[in-house]
């Protein structure tokens, strides 16, 4: 009776009553997951933009910037969070700083490549029409770089959604909290709910971003390669 | 008017792109800068709207040194067309044309009206306003480029090989259209090309530049072809300089010869006499009302009672006052008689042009 046969275990894999009892917790975890992801990608973009502009303005900076963000990207996530704790404690900032750092490499690289990919002729025409440099950046170059930048945002978002589960270890885990629950309770249902929801979340976020991109770039829609 | 006063451009690597250029671009005229690659023609053009800054000297546009104007402000007053056109791919045709109006703050209604007007001016249907550049053909895109440059009706236009990217047939049509447009808008235009034939066709004045950015000659196409200032200019104008000159001179500039003329009612003998006096073996047959009927073989006519009894053959090619001497030359080499016959609009005979007359004109 105590050690149930495998068939019983399989039936126990998903205990619907547990899910029913914990709907509020699951919703809170999901919202926190969304919040962490959204803020991390947002901060990542805010940081990556000036870095990308600097890399374009002074091409010699590009390699060091990529190198630095690349090194950050290779730090094992768990180690990074543990390194941050002495400075920032177990606050949401610890999770956000870590998550943001991981988005930088992808975002900076795609912003630089996107902006550099804007046709020289188009740039010259804009200059010759009388655009000031700032206006040219926002009205001509950024819109044209958008498909490449958005590709980066999509990768960063999906990556971050996966990474948030790790920050559960410092108390800011979103759906990762469910992994921990499952683990500590030695009971698979929370774990499965967490995995399924975070996969669905990644899928939905990617779909949403594709939609946003298509909405923002009507000109690129029916364009052959 | 645009004036270059001892303008030089030296790049940091030590090359001199433009060397002490003095040039006056007349108002309402097309001034073509032409020369081999590396002659500084594009650099000269771009110094006018400060896309490139001159190293020394002054460029004065309408009495104002361009150095004293904020570049974006300066550029909004100067239309600019380049070979690659540089339309904004993320904006519709209408939005592309509206670029400068938007920058200088026109209201929507005025801009909309101007877009319609410009599309008509460059010969594009209004339906294209909502299309994106990639949905248009190369020739259509080029027209949009011109319309965009004309949007706020700038008095000055800079054009850098504007027709270089389209195929020769479309290019020739765009050139003709552009000349017609220029008659209407009378802009002061600086036009860069590497193609001397395009320069001769488009330019009221041509500045030939040579390597190192030295002005070799600045003159009207006619003067340039008549009196090239140096061997470089003569070489650049090419071996067919005489033919190119002929293309610029209208038939009306040459006094036509009366030629050997008979009427169909004249006796056949008279054809032979007229031909011998002229030194030919044929005569022109003209009706009493001066209408051109054709030509007859003098020997054949002399065997008939009257000229009208002989076989009158038509001149296949005729020229009139507005045609070029080159067209006249073409008529000569394609006709049995070896002359070009000049007629008025009403097909009335006005005389003959001979090879001798042409060579006298251009020698």
Report on this model:
The complex is a heterodimer of chains A (225) and B (363). Chain A has 225 residues and is mostly helical. Chain A has one domain: MetI-like (MetI-like fold), CATH 1.10.3720.10. Helices cover 80% and strands 0% of the residues of chain A. Chain A has ten helices and no strands. Chain A starts with 5 loop residues before the first helix and ends in a 9-residue tail after the last helix. Chain B is α/β, with parallel strands linked by helices and 363 residues long. Chain B folds into two domains: 238 residues, Rossmann fold; 111 residues, Roll (CBS-domain). In chain B, 36% of the residues lie in helices and 23% in strands. Chain B has a six-stranded mixed beta sheet, sandwiched between helices. Chain B has a four-stranded antiparallel beta sheet with strand order 2-1-4-5, covered by helices on one side. In chain B, helix 11 packs across helix 14. The mean pLDDT of chain B is 92. At the A-B interface, helix 7 and helix 8 of A face helix 2 and helix 4 of B.
Multimeric organization: heterodimer
Main sheet characteristics of chain A: none
What structural category characterises the helix and strand content of chain B?
A: alpha/beta
Strand segment tally of chain A: 0
Rg value of chain B = 27 Å
Order of helices and strands of chain A: HHHHHHHHHH
- The CATH topology assignment of the largest domain in chain B is Rossmann fold
- Portion of residues in beta strands of chain B equals 15-25%
Major interchain interface with per-chain residue totals: A-B, 21 and 27 residues
β-sheet strand percentage of chain A: under 5%
**Globular, elongated, flat, extended or rod-shaped: what is the shape of chain B?**
elongated
Largest sheet of chain B: 6 strands, mixed
Strand and helix layout:
The complex is a heterodimer of chains A (225) and B (363).
Chain A: H1 6-13, H2 16-21, H3 23-57, H4 62-74, H5 77-88, H6 92-116, H7 120-129, H8 133-164, H9 176-185, H10 188-216
Helix pairs in contact in A: 3-6, 3-8, 3-10, 4-6, 5-6, 6-8, 7-8, 8-10, 9-10
Chain B: E1 2-10, E2 16-25, E3 30-34, H1 41-48, E4 56-61, E5 64-65, H2 71-76, E6 78-82, H3 93-97, H4 99-103, H5 108-121, H6 138-149, E7 156-160, H7 168-185, E8 188-193, H8 196-202, E9 205-210, E10 214-219, H9 221-226, H10 231-237, H11 241-248, E11 261-262, H12 268-278, E12 282-286, E13 292-297, H13 298-302, E14 318-319, H14 325-334, E15 340-343, E16 349-353, H15 355-362
Parallel strand pairs in B: 3-8, 3-9, 6-7, 7-8, 11-12, 14-15
Antiparallel strand pairs in B: 1-2, 1-4, 4-5, 9-10, 12-13, 15-16
Helix pairs in contact in B: 5-6, 11-14
